[in-house]
């Protein structure tokens, strides 16, 4: 496994400017593959380090936002569906840019809900792009730094950490008990 990782880094180092370009394009096309922003930013930290991975992720997330701006204007039906979702989370609150930056850090808040809010609260694509860029900085830096930290761990540490996260994921899952209708309404006669 370590040999594969070393060869992968060698290929990335030898690819020159293609690796960052493909990484930014991966950000743009991640929606098609239903890959969360968090995973792509972690990958950026793992492959490029905190500084360059953050820069590439910020560029990629801003590019995703600009593509979303174009798509939402091409497909108004999609905008209507996202507006319904936005009303559940954001309602009619007036959010500031720092609040949107914090919301972008939350992995359970959909990336494009914040983008839709930005579209509705800005006047043109220039303002939208500027605020999208600013709102993309926190998740890019935090998640990329975390990916770089994972990279610094030895392979065994990474596997243990991944196992620990998996156990936490299972521990905090929603627990339900199903009771059959007959059992719930049964009368005990003795």
UniProtKB/TrEMBL annotation:
Domain VTT: 35-148
Keyword Membrane among UniProt keywords: yes
Membrane topology type: Multi-pass membrane protein
A Pfam family annotated for this UniProt entry: VTT_dom
Key words of the record: Cell membrane, Membrane, Transmembrane, Transmembrane helix
Chain segments annotated as transmembrane: 21-48, 54-75, 96-119, 153-172
GO cellular component: plasma membrane
UniProt-annotated location(s): Cell membrane
Family matches, as InterPro entries: TMEM64, VTT_dom
Similarity section: Belongs to the TVP38/TMEM64 family.
Protein name: TVP38/TMEM64 family membrane protein
Organism classification: Bacteria, Bacillati, Bacillota, Bacilli, Bacillales
């Amino acid at each position: 496994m370590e040999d594969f990782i070393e060869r992968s880094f060698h290929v990335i180092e030898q690819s020159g400017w293609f690796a960052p370009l493909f990484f930014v394009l991966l950000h743009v096309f991640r929606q098609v593959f239903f890959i969360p922003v968090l995973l792509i930013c972690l990958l950026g930290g793992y492959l490029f380090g905190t500084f360059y991975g953050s820069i590439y992720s910020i560029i990629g997330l801003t590019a995703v936002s600009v593509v979303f701006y174009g798509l939402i204007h091409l497909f108004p039906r999609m905008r209507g569906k996202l507006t319904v979702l936005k009303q559940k989370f954001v309602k009619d609150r007036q959010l500031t840019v720092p609040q949107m930056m914090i919301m972008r850090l939350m992995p359970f808040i959909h990336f494009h809900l914040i983008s839709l809010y930005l579209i509705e609260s800005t006047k043109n694509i220039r303002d939208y792009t500027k605020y999208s860029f600013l709102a993309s900085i926190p998740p890019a830096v935090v998640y990329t730094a975390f990916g770089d930290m994972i990279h610094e761990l030895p392979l065994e540490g990474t596997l243990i950490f991944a196992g620990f996260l998996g156990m936490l994921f299972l521990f905090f899952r929603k627990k339900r008990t199903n009771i059959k209708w007959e059992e719930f309404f049964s009368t005990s006669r003795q």
